[in-house]
Write a sequence for this structure.
């Protein structure tokens, strides 16, 4: 059974314009959770943002697991009532097996992210 | 090949349905009733491999199948097992157009949609995709051999389910040997010997039958039909002996799915879209075999004044049973048209059209997940009794509630308070937002200080409570109750957006763990953990505790010297274990919620949601000190000014009494009159008596000084009950 691990990240809340303009190092995944919120993993130190009031915190409040695309889609077919994106890469958010989840689709693999306090429930529902 | 019916093996031929196999063995699944072989009637139901209400005409016979016949007059027994049934999965599919039914009309609709470039999914019951309901969306739910299929239609659903044959309603319609015309043809084709067949109405194809014309009067026989009686045009009855009666009485659309989806993008095509044939109004007999509704019952209801189809359905339950009106609907319409001279449209239909197992109903559904703190495993390892409290799994106690309690009062203890809501607010309009939201003077909070605050709604009622902690002029941390934090977050976000304020909001409840270090030896423990520069009472600072970076809040819910250590959740276990180890010789024991509730009640601290009601104003809970009406504006201010002019009718007050603590919710009496109820109650070890909070009504403008609770006298007292001068908390 796939095991979810806490996802070391940086969480940022800032103006949408500042987030739009920000640049991230190669190899980082910057997931736009909301127009004013980003989850960047792995964590980035002192990100340059054009917003003096931005909130930037180290965060491990989410947990995630990478799954091969076929395995992920087989699970999502029974766990996800909403329509998944078909283009790659793609980011989507919604209820998965009744739990608020975030999905990052790449060619060949999918990152499933859920709130860390719900790891046990999510793993049970994936089984 | 054989299967088992009522404990006896019977042979069947390849390709047989269960029904055909049983009829081959001269067994009627329900003992009698007109068979349709179309899945429409309730007369071929049986329990198959433990699943009741299976339509045997729709299920292929398999070797070893265990069938228990389900007599039409009774209900199948409940399964005598405590084991849960198999888990049924639900798969989700998405397409533009869903076509239900792969007959001629369904295929044509699918071809047309595909030609228009639509992504089409066709569901056909004969192929193992039996649609049982349409929900908002539209969402089409089908039962398959692999579980449930949930099909989400982007554009429309097309119902092409054809038409059902009209069943007979006449005395004797519960006999065996009655079949619809289509069924007669199918049975003959399957090689079933129908004996002498009499055809009433349209004769069956491929069956040698004696046709009779006239009005159907009754069927005669003992269990098995022996004759049918017809009244001719001249009014004379004709009795025709037979072994089988084939009934070609007309058709009505199988349109229940269209009717249940009528508010959405659902339409019918083909026979399912046709108007129903309306049979003659029956003179006698059972109209609804599922609910046992007779023509006499309909007459009685009509006489009572129920003349509208939907009301007749509810008054008689006709149409609410196994077949969901497939048998009775044409006749009930006919009856009402005869009595009222108006043909009423069919009644509404609601999911589901078939009897499902609980597993099938629950497929794809999930209960509310309950979050666990990062210390969940530590609590369980220490033998904690875990409970769902405030929306989280939390330790109720570790097996020794009094030891936990005394550790707090006399030594030192730690508790997991990670569940508290925690939010950062930042931005140039932060102060304005908080001033408008909270009834306190936020501007007077100094950096590094925090303040207890109430969160009010527009009517001045208490929504939540918590802290405001000031970091800088433009950045604050807010805390909320565990159970109220989600609502509070929405509240703050909604108001910030409504007012168009320039702020950023980040909920860090699951990002941060929090451990409460409390007790007279808390400073000793923190010294050992390396935190020597500690904030003052209601102060706030950053520091390193046992190697873990923490935000340290000094406050007290227990009434003792206390610090909340907010820290990255991934460090919770390390910090918890370090504190346990460092405090072992200080008498440190972790405390659970049970001890915490005792401790806070002794201090008279309220719990929003437990001690407050939907209409609790600060004045009613004696928290007027937390409201600064001198402020020009905050949510709830106008309501508080208005309600302050009214006489106070009830108040949350403290009580103490001798003997054991009454239950929470206990009624409070005054001179034999209802006077309120207890909201929190506990036996106080340190005070040696029961202490309570409760709602108490005013009598003649006064709060009674002595009341009766649990048939014992209780004294109203000022809170807090313990350490009234707060020397312990402020030590």
């Amino acid at each position: 059974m796939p095991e979810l691990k806490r996802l070391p990240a940086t969480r940022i809340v800032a103006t949408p314009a500042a987030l739009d303009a920000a640049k991230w190092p190669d190899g980082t995944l910057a997931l736009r959770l909301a127009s004013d919120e980003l989850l960047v993993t792995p964590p980035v130190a002192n990100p340059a943002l054009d917003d003096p009031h931005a909130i930037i915190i180290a965060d491990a409040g989410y947990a995630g697991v990478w799954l091969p695309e076929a395995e992920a889609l087989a699970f999502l077919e029974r766990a996800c009532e909403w329509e998944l994106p078909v283009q790659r890469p793609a980011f989507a958010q919604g209820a998965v097996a009744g739990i608020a989840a975030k999905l990052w689709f790449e060619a060949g693999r999918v990152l499933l992210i859920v709130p860390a306090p719900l790891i046990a429930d999510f793993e049970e529902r994936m089984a | 090949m054989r299967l088992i019916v009522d404990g006896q093996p019977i042979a069947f031929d390849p390709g047989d349905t269960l029904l055909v196999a049983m009829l081959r063995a001269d067994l009627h699944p329900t003992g009698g009733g007109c068979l349709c072989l179309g899945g429409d009637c309730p007369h071929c139901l049986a329990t198959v491999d433990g699943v009741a209400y299976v339509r045997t005409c729709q299920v292929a016979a398999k070797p070893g199948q265990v069938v228990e016949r389900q007599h039409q007059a009774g209900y199948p027994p409940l399964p005598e097992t405590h084991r849960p049934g198999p888990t049924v999965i639900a798969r989700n599919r998405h397409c533009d157009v869903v076509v239900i039914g792969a007959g001629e009309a369904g295929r044509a609709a699918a071809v047309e949609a595909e030609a228009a470039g639509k992504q089409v999914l066709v569901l056909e019951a004969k192929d193992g995709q039996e649609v049982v309901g349409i929900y908002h969306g539209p969402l089409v739910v089908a039962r398959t051999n692999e579980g449930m299929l949930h099909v989400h239609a982007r554009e429309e659903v097309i119902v092409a389910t054809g038409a059902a044959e009209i069943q007979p309603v006449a005395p004797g319609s519960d006999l065996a040997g009655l079949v619809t015309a289509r069924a007669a043809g199918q049975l003959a084709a399957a090689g079933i010997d129908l004996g002498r067949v009499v055809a009433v109405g349209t004769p069956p194809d491929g069956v040698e039958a004696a046709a009779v014309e006239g009005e159907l009067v009754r069927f005669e026989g003992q269990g098995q039909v022996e004759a049918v009686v017809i009244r001719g045009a001249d009014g004379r009855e004709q009795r025709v002996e037979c072994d089988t009666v084939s009934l070609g009485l007309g058709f009505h659309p199988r349109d229940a799915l269209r009717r249940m989806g009528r508010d959405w993008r659902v339409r019918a095509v083909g026979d399912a879209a046709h108007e129903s044939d309306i049979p003659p109004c029956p003179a006698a007999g059972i109209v609804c075999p599922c609910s046992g509704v007779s023509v006499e019952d309909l007459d009685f209801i009509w006489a009572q004044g129920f003349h509208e189809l939907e009301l007749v359905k509810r008054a008689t339950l006709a149409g609410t049973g196994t077949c969901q009106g497939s048998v009775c609907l044409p006749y009930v319409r006919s009856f009402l048209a005869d009595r009222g001279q108006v043909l009423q449209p069919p009644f509404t239909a609601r999911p589901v059209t078939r009897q499902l197992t609980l597993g099938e109903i629950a497929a794809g559904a999930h209960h509310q997940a309950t979050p666990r703190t990062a210390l969940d495993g530590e609590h369980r390892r220490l033998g904690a009794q875990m409970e769902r409290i405030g929306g989280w799994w939390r330790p109720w106690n570790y097996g020794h509630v009094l030891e936990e309690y005394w550790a707090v009062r006399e030594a030192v203890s730690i508790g997991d308070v990670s569940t508290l809501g925690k939010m950062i607010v930042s931005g140039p309009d932060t102060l304005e937002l908080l001033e408008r939201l909270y009834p306190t003077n936020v501007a007077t909070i100094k950096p590094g200080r925090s303040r207890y605050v109430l969160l009010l709604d527009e009517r001045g009622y208490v929504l939540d409570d918590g802290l405001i902690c000031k970091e800088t002029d433009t950045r604050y941390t807010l805390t909320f109750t565990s159970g109220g934090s989600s609502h509070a977050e929405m509240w703050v976000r909604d108001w910030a957006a409504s007012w168009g304020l320039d702020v950023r909001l980040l909920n860090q409840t699951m990002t941060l763990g929090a451990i409460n270090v409390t007790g007279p030896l808390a400073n000793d423990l923190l010294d050992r953990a390396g935190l020597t520069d500690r904030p003052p009472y209601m102060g706030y600072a950053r520091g390193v505790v046992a190697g873990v970076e923490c935000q340290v809040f000094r406050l007290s819910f227990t009434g003792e010297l206390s610090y909340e250590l907010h820290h990255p959740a991934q460090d919770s276990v390390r910090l918890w274990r370090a504190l346990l180890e460092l405090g072992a010789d200080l008498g440190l024991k972790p405390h659970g919620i049970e001890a915490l509730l005792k401790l806070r009640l002794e201090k008279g601290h309220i719990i929003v949601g437990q001690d407050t009601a939907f209409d609790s104003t600060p004045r009613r809970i004696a928290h007027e000190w937390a409201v600064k009406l001198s402020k020009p504006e905050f949510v709830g201010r106008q309501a508080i000014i208005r309600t302050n002019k009214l006489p106070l009718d009830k108040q949350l007050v403290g009580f103490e009494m001798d003997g054991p603590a009454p239950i929470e919710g206990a009624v409070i009496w005054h001179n034999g009159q209802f006077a309120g109820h207890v909201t929190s109650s506990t036996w106080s070890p340190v005070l040696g008596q029961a202490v309570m909070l409760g709602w108490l009504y005013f009598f003649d403008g006064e709060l009674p000084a002595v009341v009766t609770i649990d048939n014992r006298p209780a004294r109203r007292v000022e809170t807090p009950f313990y350490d009234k001068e707060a020397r312990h908390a402020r030590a």
